[in-house]
Amino acid sequence: MAETSIFVVKTTANQERSVANLIAQLARKEKYDITALLVPDVLKGYVLVEAKAPEIVEEAIQGVPHARSVIRGASSFGEVEHFLTPKPAVVGINEGSIVELISGPFKGEMARVKRVDIGKEEITVELFEAMVPIPITVRGDHVRVLSKDEIQR
Amino acid sequence: MTEQACRECHRIVEGLVCPICGSSSLSKDWTGYVVIIDPKESEVARKLGITLPGRYALKVR
Fold it and tell me: Where does the record place the Spt4/RpoE2 zinc finger domain (chain B) (predicted)?
């Protein structure tokens, strides 16, 4: 049994899932030796294909819309293993950090982090512009960290 | 309709109940996408503990 390697297919941005679906469909139909396809959200414009040889992947992407090319060289499983366990969205956000809300009704507002809930991946913030400090709980991926240090006033 | 992922087995499900584990705890809020074609040969499937071919989410909220 030959060991599988990871090959990287370049795709059009935001078409990663449709490319993965089409390659999977072809692999089943044509009996290509492709064992799995991986589309991590952090890797925009790429699909990771687990197969035994690069030629198999080259052949499989022929005629697949939005699949551009196979990146030369193979990656070992260890190199992509970290994609399988996504980090919580609140990693890198600490109490006292200054953040900007990037979605929701307070989009564009700046706020200071008061509490971080790692389990729920939520943070509680207080808006700078608010007249009275009202704690607002938002999802960790709905903010952008502007400053990690607590500003002393 | 947006696809939903099973909170128990992370499988991408069409319908209201997961056909594999029977759970009705589904979520539209999922990220990361994996297609397993051959779970016996796949290192990715082994690492994720997947034994059945299909489409899966990496993270389900």
Answer: 3-61
How far apart (Å, rounded) are the C-alpha atoms in residues A97 and A92? 9
β-pairing verdict for B12-13 and A98-101: unpaired
For Cα atoms B54, A52, A49, give the angle at the middle one, nearest 5 degrees.
Answer: 50
Average pLDDT score over residue span A52-62:
88
Laid out side by side, the sheet with A34-39 consists of A67-70, A5-11, A46-51, A34-39, B30-36, B54-60
Quick check: A50 and B43 CB within 8 A? yes
d(CA A36, CA A68): 19
Q: Does the structure show a pLDDT above 90 at A89?
A: no
Within 42-61 of A, beta carbons closer than 8 Å to B belong to 50
| C-alpha B58, offset from chain centre | 8
* Run of H or E residues at A136: strand A135-139
pLDDT tens digits, B2-26: 789 999 889 999 888 888 888 888 9
**What whole-number distance in Å separates Cα of residue A66 and Cα of residue A23?**
11
Measured CA to CA, the distance from residue A49 to residue A56 in angstroms comes to 10
Residues of chain B with C-beta less than 8 angstroms from the C-beta of A84: 44, 47-48, 58
